Amino acid sequence: MRLGKRGWPKIVKIGYKKSRKGRGLHPSGLEEIIVRRPADLEKINAKTQIAKIGHTVGERNRNAIMERAQALELRVANPGLKKPEAAPTEELIVKEPEQTKTEEAASTGEKSE
User: Fold this and answer.
1) Are 41 and 65 in contact (CB under 8 A)?
2) Using CA atoms, how far apart are residues 46 and 43, in angstroms rounded to an integer?
3) Can you give the pTM of this predicted structure?
4) SS3 of 70, please?
5) First-to-last C-alpha distance (Å) of the chain
6) DSSP code at position 37
7) Which residue has the higher pLDDT, 112 or 37?
């Protein structure tokens, strides 16, 4: 049996590991620190660590964490999606009904034939 045949992935072996220094780090090379409230940001070193907002954090706390992180100039790995702003509603153009020939004639005093 040959490895790497069509339809089958290669078998994972020892050589697939990362270097020891890089294991458990964010792809940017910084250590991830899970944050659940804005006060947790005070413990983060901006040069070696990156904040990651916990998955159970609600929108109000997430916004507070983001504001505090910007004030402290910290990076956040998962800032979350911003809500799209409501598109401006188009003003409805109300068209007045056009006058018919008989109404025009009546308004000008002419007789219709």
Assistant:
1) yes
2) 10
3) 0.59
4) helix
5) 99
6) S
7) 37
